[in-house]
Design brief:
- By secondary structure, this protein is of the alpha+beta class.
- It has one domain: Gcn5-related N-acetyltransferase (GNAT) (Aminopeptidase).
- Helices cover about 25% and strands about 30% of the residues.
- The chain has a seven-stranded mixed β-sheet with strand order 1-2-3-4-5-7-6, sandwiched between helices.
- The chain is globular and about 40 Å long.
- Bound molecules: coenzyme A.
- The site of coenzyme A has 23 residues, from helix 2, strand 4, helix 4 and helix 5.
- The site of coenzyme A (COA) has 23 residues, from helix 2, strand 4, helix 4 and helix 5.
Length: about 170
């Protein structure tokens, strides 16, 4: 991994015609990664049309390097309530030219800080990740997610691990 000194932050996108939205539409993954995340331009449009979701840009210094969707629907990601206020992470991507520099891990840390600041009532961040997607699993574990051990079979690219990150660990028992 190359040494990186960039400051990584995250920022909501609300305007589909903004410069940020255009930069997100230009993000690309490697050909063999599309099965995990699909097309980011489509994911951005889908997110902006959903009143229960937020579109978030990942910014390293001043450059947009990634994107993810926050899904606030009660059954988001795993199709059922987790018994506490949750938010689902979907469509997470770091542009393939920027991968392996720690941006994914730093983006997830910034994501949790952002949720604590803007959505303090949400207690847990949940995601699924394909069992063969080693870089993503590693990035999630290194940014504090835990593997629940549960397998989710709803994806089109094979079984997925269900991972959680508690946003206010000092208040959980
Ligand atoms: C998953 C993804 C967002 C990770 O972003 P990233 O910026 O490349 O990740 P990081 O550089 O923060 O890497 C985090 C850890 O993952 C591991 N990792 C990263 N790239 C890796 C690779 N190509 N192979 C193996 N491990 C890898 C490293 O151990 C790294 O930790 P380190 O920096 O301490 O060495 C990015 O690879 C991506 O966009 N993939 C395609 C879309 C996708 O799969 N999204 C997830 C859907 S659930």
């Amino acid at each position: 991994m190359s040494a990186v000194t960039a400051r990584v932050r995250v920022e909501p996108i609300v305007d589909p015609d903004s410069t940020a939205a255009r930069a997100v539409r230009a993000l690309r993954v490697a050909p063999d990664q599309y099965r995990y995340v699909g097309d980011t331009a489509f994911n951005l449009g889908d997110t902006l049309r959903d009143p229960m979701s937020e579109a978030i840009a990942v910014i390293a210094d001043d450059a947009i390097v990634g994107f993810y969707r926050l899904d606030f629907a009660p059954n988001a990601v795993v199709g059922r309530s987790l018994g506490m206020p949750s938010v689902g992470l979907r469509a997470f991507v770091i542009d393939h030219r920027q991968q392996g520099r720690g941006y994914g891990r730093m983006a997830m840390n910034a994501c949790c800080d952002d949720l604590r600041a803007r959505h303090p009532g949400r207690e847990v961040l949940v995601l699924t990740v394909n069992c063969i997607n080693a870089p993503a699993i590693s990035a999630y574990l290194k940014s504090g997610f835990i593997d629940t051990g549960e397998l989710f079979h709803g994806g089109s690219a094979g079984p997925q691990h269900v991972m959680l990150q508690f946003l206010h660990p000092h208040t959980t028992t």
